[in-house]
Specification:
Blueprint: H1 2-26, H2 30-42, H3 53-60, E1 64-70, H4 74-82, E2 86-91, E3 94-100, H5 104-108, E4 114-119, H6 120-124, H7 141-154, E5 159-166, E6 172-178, E7 192-196, H8 205-219, H9 224-232, E8 234-238, H10 243-249, H11 305-315, E9 320-328, E10 332-335, H12 347-364, E11 367-370, H13 381-389, E12 392-398, H14 410-428
Parallel strand pairs: 7-8, 7-9, 9-12, 10-11
Antiparallel strand pairs: 1-3, 1-4, 2-3, 5-6, 6-8, 10-12
């Protein structure tokens, strides 16, 4: 019966994907994509999925707890991360988040006051949104790929699409390249910029922003300012860096609140936090060595094929000057260091980081700050990109009040972050200017 239900679900998903693909083939311009997105969240076309007993049992058997814990400063928040807590929200003198039930005693034994705790199944009952019916405006892996293909096909003179590598489950990590004189993996001497989303599976808004930014650039390619960037820069857009996790998060019709990739760990848990797996102060601060923790750093730096693919991609391109990594949520514009409370030692670089973050914060309405002002987090993408490749790398924590803020938030977030992304392009040729 389970196989039959799975077959029916896959067949339905494939039929829907074909219909969506046909729509996409007609026109992949920014305005068309945006208008379709709005119509999809105003009038969802899919019925609410029916959860079978197996799915409900899976949700009920989730080994995580949702807790509220006392924490008065960034050092206490960092320690909680190291003990296995995945911090979701920071309040005055407390944090909330997820922790594996086996790791909860570690917190209680370290003089932290656990103010509230609920099983995952009890906590998740308050959230009724299903996927894809209620949030069908968001783009899954195939829909994202279809848009990227069409954008590349419609703009063959400047756009090319290729994979930077495979995920642990064998999915391609697609990058759309915009360059007027180099295609595919051909090297370029033009200053380069990377925009990447969805390091964390449940942060689906972080896929929408770079995907729609790609469409915006190509739709406005005759605008004098955009035209200049397309002619003088080497632009790479990777909307969905963790497709395995993103697909798993929506696989049952009920959000799984999944953060990591799909590594099968030795103790039976799933996933490594890709944004703790880079080789910069790896697993020293704000990361957990417990495989069940949502901030699990993995068995070694770059133990995961996804983070290793990003490493190889960046190191092979010495022309990359800027990087924007999208996450959600919090409404912040963050710069290195994330894995240290110390400021960036190079004063010239530090001033450039601060000025660019301030400007992007002004354009988005987000709060600019050093990443570790929240808490220290070793193995971060942007720390590694700056330390190892000299890239001015920023983390954008997109707006919202939840990892699942609904689809109506997308348009505003896209509009605001396009302004900041265009500004970052303007600084890519010389971040010091």
């Amino acid at each position: 019966m389970r196989l039959v239900l799975l077959s029916l679900l896959l067949s339905f998903s494939q039929l829907y994907a074909v219909e969506k693909s046909d729509e996409i083939q007609k026109n992949a311009s920014f305005e068309k994509i945006l208008s379709e997105l709005v119509s999809r969240y105003e009038s969802p076309s899919l019925p609410s999925p029916q959860l079978d007993e197996e799915t409900l049992r899976e949700l009920q058997n989730d080994d995580r707890m949702f807790v509220k814990v006392s924490a008065s400063d960034k050092k206490e928040r960092t320690k909680l991360l190291e003990l296995g807590l995945d911090i979701v929200e920071i309040g005055k003198n407390y944090v909330t988040g997820f922790i594996h039930k086996n790791d909860l005693p570690l917190i209680e034994s370290k003089s932290f006051a656990v103010l509230e705790k609920k099983t995952f199944s009890d906590w998740v009952k308050q959230f009724e949104k299903d996927f894809p019916a209620a949030d069908s405006a968001y783009h899954n892996y195939k829909e994202t790929y279809d848009y990227l293909v069409q954008l590349a096909n419609d703009n063959k003179d400047i756009a090319s699409l290729f994979s930077i590598g495979k995920t642990i489950e064998g999915r391609d990590i697609w990058v759309l390249r915009l360059n007027s004189s180099a295609k595919g993996q051909t090297k370029s001497s033009k200053p380069g910029a990377i925009f990447v989303g969805n390091h964390h599976a449940r942060e689906h808004l972080s896929n929408e922003v770079p995907l729609l930014f790609a469409a915006y650039l190509l739709d406005n390619r005759q605008n004098p300012e955009i035209k200049k960037y397309l002619e003088t820069l080497d632009i790479y857009i990777i909307p969905m860096f963790n497709p395995d996790g993103a697909e798993y998060d929506i696989s049952t019709g009920k959000y799984k609140w999944h953060r990591k990739n799909m590594r099968k760990n030795s103790n039976g848990t799933i996933g490594v936090d890709l944004n703790r797996n880079y080789d910069t102060t790896w697993c020293r601060y704000g990361s957990s060595t417990s495989p069940g923790a949502d901030t699990y750093c993995g068995t070694a730096p770059f133990s995961e094929p996804e983070s290793a693919a990003m490493r190889d991609f960046i190191l092979a391109r010495k022309n990359i000057k800027t990087l924007q990594s999208y996450h959600s949520y919090g409404g912040m514009m963050l710069y290195p260091w994330g894995g240290s409370y110390d400021p960036v030692p190079n004063e010239k670089d530090r001033n450039a980081f601060i000025k660019m973050a301030d400007k992007m914060g002004e354009l988005t309405g987000y709060d600019p700050k050093q990443s570790s002002d929240l808490y220290a987090a070793s193995g971060d993408t942007c720390d590694w990109a700056y330390e190892k490749a000299g890239i001015f790398a920023f983390t954008t924590e997109l707006e919202g009040s939840s990892f699942y803020p609904g689809a109506a938030i997308i348009k505003g977030a896209v509009d605001r972050n396009i302004k900041a992304a265009v500004y970052l392009l303007s600084m890519t040729d010389n971040p010091y200017k």
